[in-house]
Amino acid sequence: MSLSNGRPYLAIPGPSVMPEEVLRAMHRSSPNIYEGELVELTRSLVPDLKAVARTEGQVAIYISNGHGAWEAALANVVAPGETVLVPSTGRFGHGWADMAVGLGAEVEMIDFGRATPVDPDRVEAALRADTQGRIKAVLATHVDTSSSVRNDIAAIRKAIDAAGHPALLMSDNIASLACDRFEMDAWGVDVMVAASQKGLMVPPGLSFVFFNDKAAEVRKAMPRVSRYWDWAPRGNPEFYYQHFGGTAPTHHLYGLRVALDMIKDEGLENVWARHERLARAIWAACDVWGQGNGALALNIADPAHRSHAVTAARLGLPWGKHLRHWTEHSAGVTLGIGLGMSEPDDPKGEGFFRFGHMGHVNAHMVLGLIGVVEAGLDAIGAPHTKGGVTAAAEIIAGAPVTRLLAPAAEA
Ligand SMILES: *Cc1c(COP(=O)(O)O)cnc(C)c1O
Q: Start and end of every Aminotransferase class V domain (predicted)?
C-alpha cells in the first residue's frame, strides 16, 4: 500500500506549483499573433512586470529559461575580453559566471562558500583594487537556490558606491522575484534577471531582463550585441514581433497575465508577507527536529540571511536520500535534491535536501509538507525530536516570531 495517490505536490524550488487559474488560461486555442487580443494583452504585462520588480526601468521578455536570461543580460552589456566581478554564494553565482566565460568575458570570482552570504566589504575591496577600471559589472545573486542564502543586494550597491566604481550592479532574482522583498530602483540595481517558473507561477519558458537607463546607455556603447539577445527592440518594440524576436510565446502570455493579476489582487506586500510566514513555519519545524540528537540542521544558520522561497537542510547520509524517496513514493510529496552540496564522504550531496516554498503555496500545503516530512523522519528512522508540526502550526496561527528565533528559550 502507498499513501501517495491523490494530488502530487512538487515541493522543489522550481518549477513551482501552478495555480489552476493559470493552467485554465493557457488551455485554449491559439490567438492571432499579428493583431488584436494578444497584442493588447502583451502590452498590459509590461507595467505589471515592472511593478513586481519595483522599477521604472524597461523589461525585455525572452522565450527561455533562467539560463537564457543570464546570457541575455550579459550579451547586452559585457563584450568579449571585458571583466565581471562575481561575489558568489552556493552554486548559482558560478553558473552565471560560467555563462560570462562562454561569452568571452574575464571573471573575477569571490567565493563565499555555501552557507554564508556575500560580505559587501570584500566586494568594495575588490572594486577599490580595480584601479584600471576593468570591472564592467558586478553579478550578484539575490537568493541562491542551492544554499537558500538571501544576499543583501542594497548593501552590495552601497559597496560599489563607497568604492566610487562605475560598474553596473546586476542581480539574479530568478528564485526570489515575488517571494522575497526586492526593490530594484530603491536598491540601485541596474539589471535584474527573472524567469517564469518560480515566484511567477507560470510554466518554465519565459524569462525577463529588467534594465534601467544607465544599463541602456552601456548597451548603446557596445560594439555589437547579438540580434536575438538584444534587449533594445524587445524593451521598446516598433513592431509586435520584436517583443519576442519572432513568434510570441502565446500560451505562456495568457498564463502570465493571470499570474500577475493574482499577485496584484493579493498585493505584493502581502505576497512577501505570506512567503515569510510560511518560511518561518518550515524553519520552526526544522529547529525542533534538530533538537537533542536530531540529525537535521538548516544550511543557513542566521534567519536574517535565509530566503523565504527555498530552504536547504542537511540531514546527513543515508537519511537525506531516504527521506526524499519516502516522501515521494509513500506520501506524494517531492522534495528538492541537495544541489552543489557534495562533501568528501557524500560526493553527490545526498545528505541534503530542499523545501521549495515559492509562489502558489498556502498554509495547508506547507503544513501538509511539514507533516509528511515529520512522518518520513519517523518512518525511515532518522534521529529527530518530535513536535515540528506543532511548532509550525503555532507560527501559522500567528505565534510571535521570537518563538521561532529562540525555540530553546521557550522550553
Ligand atoms: C532556477 C534558477 C536559475 C536557473 O534557471 P533555469 O530556468 O533552470 O535556467 C538561475 N538562478 C537562480 C537563482 C535560480 O533559482
A: 36-281
Helix residue ranges, H only, 6-91: 20-26, 37-53, 66-77
Span from the CA of 299 to the centroid of ligand 1 (angstroms): 19
CATH fourth-level superfamily of 9-15+267-398: Aspartate Aminotransferase, domain 1 (3.90.1150.10)
Distance CA 15, CA 103 (A): 27
> DSSP character for 18?
P
Ligand 1 atom with the smallest distance to the CA of 70 is 10
Give the C-alpha separation, 385 to 388, whole Å. Answer: 8
The confidence band for 411, taking pLDDT boundaries of 50, 70 and 90, is: very low
pLDDT per position as a tens digit, 319-367: 999 999 999 999 999 999 999 999 999 999 999 999 999 999 999 999 9
Thinking of the domain 31-264, which architecture would CATH place it in?
3-Layer(aba) Sandwich (3.40)
Three-state SS at 106? strand
Query: Average of pLDDT values for 109-134?
Result: 98
Tell me the helix, strand and coil percentages in the chain, rounded to 5.
Answer: 40, 15, 40
Q: 173-195: per-residue pLDDT in tens?
A: 999 999 999 999 999 999 999 99
Distance separating alpha carbons of residues 72 and 226, to the nearest angstrom: 9
Q: How confident is the prediction for the chain on average, in pLDDT?
A: 96
Cα–Cα distance between 69 and 193 in angstroms, integer?
6
Q: Which three cell numbers stand for residue 134?
A: 576593468
Atom of ligand 1 nearest to the CA of 173: 13
CA angle 49, 237, 169 (to 5 degrees): 50
Q: Residue 205: CB within 6 Å of ligand 1?
A: no
Ligand 1 in contact with 254 (CB < 6 A)?
Answer: no
Q: Is 26 in contact with 254 (CB distance < 8 Å)?
A: yes
Average pLDDT for 150-155: 98
Strand 206-211 vs strand 168-172: parallel, antiparallel, or unpaired?
unpaired
The C-alpha torsion from 123 through 124 and 129 to 130, rounded to 10°, is: 80
| Predicted local distance difference test score (pLDDT) of residue 165 | 98
Q: Is the CB of 14 under 6 A from ligand 1?
A: yes
Strand partners, 10: 334
Closest CA to 159 of 87, 97, 213: 87
pLDDT over 70 for what percent of the chain? 97
Q: Where are the domains of the chain?
A: 9-15+267-398, 31-264
Q: Which pLDDT does position 400 carry in this prediction?
A: 53
